Amino acid sequence: MKALLLGAGLLLGVGAQAAPVTLKWAHGYETSEPFHTQAEAMAQKIKAATAGRVEIQVYAASALGAEAEYSKKLASGDIDIAYIGINVLSRDYAPLGVVGFPFLFSDPDHVRRFLVSPVFDELRKGYEAQSRNHLMAAIYYGARHVTSNKPINSPRDMQGLKLRVPDAPSYKLFARSMGAVATPMPFAKVYDALKSGEIDAQENPLPTILAKKFYEVQKSVTLTGHMYDMLGIVISPTALQRMNEGDRVIVNDIIRKDAVWASVQIIARELVAEGKLGETGIKVIRPDRQAFMEAAAKAVSPADLQARPGDYEKIRELLKPGMH
């Protein structure tokens, strides 16, 4: 009898799997941004590669909620895939927060080396064990810089500055390391808060600064490059279970490969944005980054972000010649 029931179950499983699997991909970016266009491109490739067995519907501009809610929504099944910042993922697995330590990364190539390194793989596995979600890939999001009305030429110029930061430990730590006043608030309110003087400054990648027209309410942008952000592509275990093994491999492979191309697009977008910002009239300041790095190292520690012992050093060592 058990064998008959098992056989029936297997047959039902085959029938269920034959039906198309539809997955919801949530993110907070506008449809014009490369994160969205790349997600759409991945969805089309996956549909073609699986002969229509897996269809991904991409929901832009926080249509399915804010980024801070995505982890819970993945667990509940309200969404299946999401773009979530690595620093935000550290809420579920604290050691991931090391990637947000001020001035940890030196340039985009340093980030690339990290994303293919054993230390990232270990952190990814730790996150997956803790959250049960699968971190398929990470995309380069950009170097974050500070805009303000008061020119910032050295760390001293940030003392007491009301700096809007996202509500995550690493961003708050950067503000503290510079002696600024960390002021978390929803991103949608930042422009008006800068205009009214509720906050003095904010920090974001150059394409975001340009797209949100912060140059209209700020006089200068200081190229601190204090943090190199990464965006995780996370899928829920429930979504994985709904696909057969072959389709899971296809989805994972396409997303991992296309994430590399998406990163290249973002880097190119940064270069274009720097040139366009210069045309807006905002003053672009290129400070002594080493001075900022030294000030941060004296004020804070990777342990403040619950980093695993040695991870900070391993990531810095990726800069050495011969490390790929």
Briefly characterize the structure.
The protein has 324 residues and is α/β, with parallel strands linked by helices. It has helices at residues 2-18, 34-49, 70-76, 86-89, 108-115, 118-131, 169-177, 190-196, 206-211, 237-242, 245-280, 289-299, 311-317; strands at 21-26, 54-59, 81-85, 134-148, 162-165, 181-184, 201-205, 220-235, 283-285.
List the defining traits of the structure above.
alpha/beta; about 325 residues; single chain; disordered N terminus; nine-stranded mixed beta sheet; 9 strands; about 20% strand
Structure, described:
By secondary structure, this protein is an alpha/beta fold. Strands 1, 2, 3, 4, 5, 6, 7, 8 and 9 form a nine-stranded mixed beta sheet that branches. It has helices at residues 2-18, 34-49, 70-76, 86-89, 108-115, 118-131, 169-177, 190-196, 206-211, 237-242, 245-280, 289-299, 311-317, and strands spanning 21-26, 54-59, 81-85, 134-148, 162-165, 181-184, 201-205, 220-235, 283-285. The relative contact order is 0.17. Mean pLDDT is 92; it is low at 1-17. The radius of gyration is 21 Å and the shape is globular. The chain starts with a helix and ends in a 7-residue tail after the last helix. α2 packs antiparallel against α11 (245-280). The longest helix has 36 residues, at 245-280. Helices cover 46% and strands 20% of the residues. The chain is built from 13 helices and nine strands.
